[in-house]
Design a protein that fits this description.
Helix content is 56%, strand content 0%. The chain starts with 10 loop residues before the first helix and ends in a 22-residue tail after the last helix. 1% of the residues are buried.
Length: 104
C-alpha cells in the first residue's frame, strides 16, 4: 500500500529532487536509510554502546581513511584460509578493496 504525502523541503533538497527520475523512490530510499540508521543506533545502545554525535563523527573520519595494505593482505589471508574468498579480487557488496589497500 502507498500513501500520498505533501512535504516542504529546503531549496537544496528541492533542487536535488527535481533532478530525480522518480522522486517518490528517491525520498523512500532516503527515509529508509535514515530509519535503518536509527535502528542500528538502537541495537548498539541495547548492546551497551553509548552512541553520540561526536563519536559518530570520529568513526566516520576513521573509516574514511584507506585500509592499510598489510591489513588487507592479512584479511585476505584469513578469508582464503577459511575458504571464503579467492586469494585475489575485490571484496563486495558495499565497495571493493584492491590488494594495495586503496578503496576502489
Amino acid at each position: 500500500m502507498t500513501e500520498k504525502r505533501s512535504i516542504s523541503v529546503p531549496d537544496d533538497v528541492a533542487a536535488w529532487l527535481d533532478q530525480q527520475f522518480n522522486v517518490s523512490a528517491a525520498v523512500t530510499a532516503a527515509v529508509r536509510t535514515y530509519m535503518h540508521a536509527l535502528r542500528t543506533d538502537e541495537v548498539l545502545e541495547a548492546a551497551g554502546f553509548r552512541i553520540t554525535e561526536s563519536g559518530k563523527l570520529r568513526w566516520r573520519e576513521r573509516l574514511s581513511r584507506p585500509i592499510p595494505a598489510d591489513a588487507v593482505a592479512e584479511g585476505r589471508r584469513m578469508l582464503t584460509e577459511l575458504g571464503s574468498v579467492a586469494p585475489t579480487g575485490s571484496v563486495a557488496p558495499t565497495g571493493s578493496v584492491d590488494p594495495t589497500g586503496s578503496a576502489a
